[in-house]
Design a protein that fits this description.
Layout lengths: L6 E11 L20 E14 L2 E2 L4 E8 L8 E8 L4 H11 L8 H5 L2 E10 L2 E3 L6 E4 L3 E7 L12 E3 L9 E14 L2 E4 L4 E10 L1
Parallel strand pairs: 5-6
Antiparallel strand pairs: 1-2, 1-13, 2-3, 2-4, 4-5, 7-8, 8-9, 9-11, 10-11, 11-12, 11-13
């Protein structure tokens, strides 16, 4: 990668999908949903980020995707939303990064799994990166809210994490919860998987 295309993003990642609370993709690479496919909504708030000298800190993004089978088996459809507060230069930079055009993991690998992709779509994004009650929404399009897992016997909040000691694909340590809300209605991208897997993590991506 040439020196004029260096990028790095450290982000709050708010993740929900149609898997059960363990999410089979995190362990064996295959979703555990009844359909055998993956449908996911991910929100990102950039803590620190840049493309070359362009500062990307503070920008919010939402990534929506669905695959008919496991992610790595491809044929996916996706959409990228970027918050309307971003400048045109920042939008262009993030579109290049998130589409895998500038290399770097995990975006370079994920980009190859799509046959259809829309965006960047510029919308006002509301986002709360709270560790236990994270949420994000775009009015009239999508709504996600996470809550902690609850012990059914004691009623107490569970402190559950998935950790990859040698480094994970998307993140290294995720605080695992429950999707209180998880829905999207955007063209052919329409699903609702409330009550399924949720994770809140800090992600470090770059090339």
């Amino acid at each position: 990668m040439s020196a004029d295309n260096k990028w790095s993003l450290s982000m709050h990642q708010i993740e929900c999908c149609n898997c059960s609370h363990g999410c089979g993709c995190q362990f064996g690479g295959f979703p555990d949903s009844e359909s055998g496919g993956c449908q996911a909504l991910l929100g990102f708030l950039i803590i620190e980020g840049h493309l070359n000298e362009l500062d990307l800190s503070g920008i919010k993004m939402v990534f929506a995707a669905k695959w008919p089978k496991a992610i790595h088996e491809g044929n996916g459809s996706g959409a990228l939303f970027i918050d309307s507060s971003a400048s045109s230069e920042q939008v262009t930079a993030l579109a290049k990064i998130m589409s895998g055009q500038l290399g770097g993991m995990p975006v370079e690998a994920i980009a190859g799994t799509f046959t259809e992709f829309e965006g960047p779509v510029i919308k006002e994004i509301h986002m709360n990166p709270d560790e236990k009650h994270a949420s994000f929404s775009i009015e009239g399009i999508l709504d996600v809210a996470q809550t902690p897992l609850i012990n059914p016997v004691t009623g107490e909040e569970q402190n559950v994490h998935i950790t990859f000691p040698s480094g994970g694909f998307m993140w290294d340590d995720g605080n695992i919860g429950h999707s209180e809300k998880m829905s999207i209605d955007f063209g052919a991208m329409t699903f609702d998987h409330t009550g399924q897997f949720a994770a809140k993590a800090i992600a470090h991506w770059g090339n």
